[in-house]
Amino acid sequence: MQNGTCIYMPAIVDYIIIMKYLKFFKFFFSFKFTLICFAVILYLSFMNAGAVKIPKLTIFFGHFDLIVHFFMYFGLSFLFFAERYRKFEYSAESIQFLNCQKFILLFVLSSFLIEVFQPIISNRSRELSDFLANTAGCYTGFFCLRLLKNVIFNIGFCNK
């Protein structure tokens, strides 16, 4: 090859690989509030119960922790689908139930795995009622976003 006409192929391949990673990270971090919420849920789920003195809350009934579990996963699901709806330019298809089942099941699976590994990692008990409250929170968060999407995104709570 003549001087100056040779294309350095490894540099082009490196550029393509870097651009793929950048697209992945851009997509990944477009769900930043969901990631923060999930990190908080993981921290709270695996926090050693003996390390912090938490008072027993029996405000309405003896299982106030189920309400906490419900709202943690409600918030996670609601945030994820709100960010997904916004990311896909407010497309109604982005939050149709059939398109979102795999994400809801992913949240339910993560909840299940957290409950399975809690006794191992943090010396806490696993409870079926916690898992059911988490699952109910995931589904309720999704359906609440579906019902309230016009109010949230059109009235001005979240600017387009």
- Say how many strands there are: 0
Strand content bin:
under 5%
Number of helical segments? 5
* Spatial shape: globular
Share of helix among residues?
A: over 70%
- Segments where pLDDT lies below 50 for 5+ residues? none
Alpha carbon gap, first and last residue: 53 Å
Structural class call reads mainly alpha
Mean pLDDT: 79
Number of structurally distinct domains: 1
The succession of helices and strands, N to C, reads HHHHH
Biggest sheet character: none
- Evaluate the radius of gyration: 21 Å
Write a short abstract of this structure.
By secondary structure, this protein is an all-alpha fold.
Descriptive report:
By secondary structure, this protein is an all-alpha fold. The protein has one domain (9-47, 63-154). Helices cover 70% and strands 0% of the residues. α4 (97-122) packs across α5. The model has no long low-confidence stretch (mean pLDDT 79).
Topology, pairings included?
Elements: H1 9-28, H2 32-46, H3 64-87, H4 97-122, H5 128-154
Key words describing this protein structure:
single chain; 160 residues; mainly alpha; globular
